[in-house]
Design a protein that fits this description.
Layout lengths: L1 H17 L6 E5 L3 H8 L3 H22 L3 E8 L7 H17 L4 H5 L2 E6 L7 H13 L6 E9 L1 H17 L10 H6 L12 E4 L20 E4 L9 H17 L2
Parallel strand pairs: 1-2, 1-5, 2-4, 3-4, 5-6
């Protein structure tokens, strides 16, 4: 263990030197919180809390490496099927972390703009109030963009965008012939203007993208990196390895 701790900074430096191309937008599927908790014999909510702590840690790494956009798949539309006590505990944790944005020096020093993407109609009002407070407090920031996907499903996102466009056509605000790729993109993700995804990372040894950002990721042929560590155990080395996969893809296309 001592040897690994001594060698890890050197390996990080080696990986960093290999990454000439830095992804502009990374999307992360944070998988493994519950399995992490089971492996340690702790409550599931403690596993989710450990995952939330890792989320805050990754902000430092992203800032250091020059990544401008990170989108985190924190709670999917499918997750509503979980035990209701677990869902309530997760919502309480999300609320706590969104409110922490108001006083966290990291958010303000790095000028992090916090935004939620997902179906707001599915979330409780107290959580939505905390989300709105965090978004408003960071609205003017443009140093880094942290997008939290809550009550999110890729197909649901496209359906909601289609409904909005159809409504605008019926109101006469949009002509059917004017509907193109750019218009559809402008109606996705609550009009947040998310850029194309360069790299998707999934932790927890699962090799699937689970309906996450299909328009921005699959539509733009993003690089994908699957890794074994549960999300709470994700390391900077794992992030750099993922970035190396993106760099290799970029170099092969030159």
């Amino acid at each position: 263990m001592i040897r690994e701790r001594l060698l890890e900074p050197l390996y990080e430096r080696y990986l960093r030197m290999q990454c000439r191309h830095i992804p502009h937008h990374i999307a992360i599927i944070q998988d493994g919180n519950r399995r992490f908790a089971r492996a340690l014999g702790i409550d599931t909510v403690q596993g989710h809390r450990a995952g939330a702590d890792k989320t805050e840690e990754i902000l430092d790494w992203a800032h250091e490496l020059g990544i401008r956009h990170i989108t985190l798949y924190s709670f999917s539309t499918e997750n509503f099927g979980r035990d209701q006590e677990e869902v309530s505990q997760l919502f309480a944790l999300f609320k706590e972390r969104f409110l922490r944005v108001l006083t966290d020096e990291r958010e303000h020093n790095y000028r992090i703009r916090v935004q939620m993407v997902g179906d707001r109609s599915l979330l409780p009002q107290d959580l939505l109030t905390a989300v709105s407070a965090a978004e408003e407090a960071t609205r003017a920031y443009d140093g880094f963009f942290l997008n939290i996907a809550l009550a999110y499903g890729g197909r649901n996102e496209i359906v909601l965008a289609a409904r909005n466009i159809i409504s605008s056509v019926q109101d006469g605000a949009i002509l059917p012939g004017a509907i193109d790729v750019r218009m559809v993109e402008s109606h996705l993700y609550g009009g947040r203007g998310l850029p194309p995804v360069d790299l998707i990372i999934r932790t927890g040894n699962e090799c699937r993208t689970s309906n996450f950002l299909p328009w921005l990721a699959n539509g733009h042929e993003s690089a994908v990196y699957f890794c074994a560590p549960y999300w709470p155990l994700f390391r900077k080395i794992d992030l750099l390895r993922a970035m190396r996969v993106y760099d290799q893809r970029m170099r092969s296309g030159l």
